[in-house]
Automatic annotation (TrEMBL):
Keywords: Membrane, Transmembrane, Transmembrane helix. This is Uncharacterized protein. Residues 11-21 have a biased composition (Polar residues). It comes from Thalassiosira oceanica. Residues 337-352 have a biased composition (Low complexity). The lineage of its organism: Eukaryota, Sar, Stramenopiles, Ochrophyta, Bacillariophyta.
């Protein structure tokens, strides 16, 4: 069952009806209904009901604009940064194949889980970016995330039989946020269903009637309806309580702010805490390459009504959990889960196993460092195996250089002194620093010498022309 989500630190919803109990499990025979969130699920609060009434009232909630009077009703989707981001994110959360249908060229990842290792910016020379008149720099910022595929049974330590990978931050966040968003929606939908089943059971008990258990009751075995209700309501009513979802700014979104000099600012994802976290920062360019460390993002956040808001990291922080894995690559069929909970057809578990698309997408998009970590046996049937062997050493070296702390959080090279690293690596040595300094000073000296020679040659040519001119006169 889905692990509990971290509650968003928001205040109690002021619009919530005063007749709603603190723990929404009915104990009387009367219930009323409202639509909870975007799932259009009937939610018991207080009035007599039947299954027919449930369906009718659900349709009324949707068709008659029930949201105007109900704080839990779904909202009309606006063409906002959040809506655009959600459209991209939801592509990454569906299962892709069953093991009995595994095709040649695919790697079996169902026994592994994704574990975040580090995020790192790197500034590199870019001929295209530096060639334009409008560009102030010939450097462009590349964003990387290092992650591992660890055995699901040993995700905490993950010190052998794992693969290490590097992928651009946009791909990593698009895939993992899509997975986590769908996981969160399923969690809240299950919570709502369990609350309704609890209310139906309580009503049957109050009326002295026999209660026929719902076929989906197994889903509620590990659900705390009290805590999950509060968590899901905090998330659903986030904006009403002065919070914005940080995950909608992981791209590069223009802020509704302009200073007295006409400068514009942008919000985007960046690395923090030596790469162990991902946060939203302020940038001065539309590519989110130039980080402005003098500004706090929350001082510039406003909602559609112009009121100041804060950022909630309830979803984004699930993409870099400390000491835990982000997602399991094994996704079992929902119907099979039901059968397993009823002790039926348990011999078919392996046939029903599926690989989550989040794992396939990240695996295919990433640079791979596997053989040195005991993951090589997984690669022989991979369709790009030969190409992987040729490039693996380069990928491993590049991952090591990022893990070693040779770059700061903005992507600049760190020359003076090393720093604490994540996942191993070495600090810059004294010999390396000397060689770099010697190279820089030597380049400056050669440039000066070349300028002197150019000056002498130019003066000599002018003198010759002057003498020629005098003779002609």
């Amino acid at each position: 069952m889905h692990p509990p989500l971290a509650a968003v630190p928001v205040q109690q919803v002021s619009k919530r009806p005063t007749t709603t109990p603190a723990r929404p499990v009915a104990v009387a025979s009367e219930h009323k209904f409202c639509c909870l969130g975007r799932h259009q699920t009937i939610f018991p609060l207080s009035k007599p009901h039947t299954n027919t009434m449930k369906l009718s009232l659900a349709l009324m909630c949707s068709a008659l604009g029930y949201s105007a009077a109900n704080p839990f009703a779904p909202k009309v989707t606006k063409n906002t940064a959040k809506a655009r981001m959600n459209a991209k994110l939801m592509r990454g959360a569906t299962p892709i194949r069953k093991l009995e249908q595994q095709e040649d060229g695919e790697v079996d990842l169902t026994n592994y889980s994704i574990k975040f290792e580090k995020c790192q910016f790197v500034k590199q020379y870019d001929a295209e970016e530096g060639g334009g008149e409008e560009n102030d720099s010939i450097l462009t910022t590349k964003r990387f995330v290092i992650f591992r595929l660890c055995p699901s049974s040993n995700c905490g330590s993950c010190n052998y039989n794992y693969g290490e990978y590097i992928v651009d931050m946009e791909t990593y966040l698009e895939s993992t946020l899509g997975f986590k968003e769908e996981e969160q929606e399923q969690y809240c939908e299950t919570c709502n269903q369990c609350i309704e089943m609890a209310a139906n059971y309580a009503e049957a008990q109050a009326n002295g009637e026999d209660y026929e258990e719902d076929e989906n009751a197994w889903m509620c075995n590990n659900v705390n309806t009290g805590s999950c209700y509060e968590e899901c309501q905090n998330i659903e009513n986030m904006e009403e309580n002065g919070y914005m979802d940080a995950s909608q700014y992981v791209g590069c979104e223009k802020l509704d702010y302009e200073d007295n000099y006409g400068n514009e600012y942008y919000a985007g994802a960046m690395c923090a805490s030596s790469g162990s976290r991902i946060k939203i920062g302020i940038f001065t360019d539309e590519e989110c390459s130039n980080y402005d460390e003098t500004k706090d993002i929350e001082n510039y956040m406003k909602n559609d009504d112009g009121y100041s808001t804060k950022l909630s990291y309830h979803l984004l922080k699930q993409t870099f959990p400390e000491g835990e894995c982000v997602a399991s690559c094994l996704q079992e069929d929902e119907e099979q889960n039901n059968n397993n909970n009823n002790n039926n057809n348990n011999n078919n578990n392996q046939q029903q196993a599926e690989t989550a698309e989040v794992c396939r997408e990240l695996y295919e998009a990433s640079g791979k460092c596997e053989s040195s970590h005991g993951f090589e046996s997984q690669m022989y049937n991979y369709e790009n195996y030969n190409n992987q062997v040729k490039n693996e050493e380069l990928v491993c070296d590049f991952i090591s250089s990022l893990s070693a702390g040779h770059y700061d959080q903005t992507g600049e090279i760190v020359v003076n002194g090393g720093r604490t690293t994540l996942g191993g690596g070495s600090a810059t040595t004294g010999g390396q620093k000397f060689a770099l300094t010697f190279f820089i000073l030597g380049s400056v000296g050669l440039a000066g010498y070349a300028a002197m020679l150019h000056s002498q040659l130019t003066k000599g040519a002018k003198a010759d022309l002057s003498r020629q001119g005098g003779a002609m006169a």
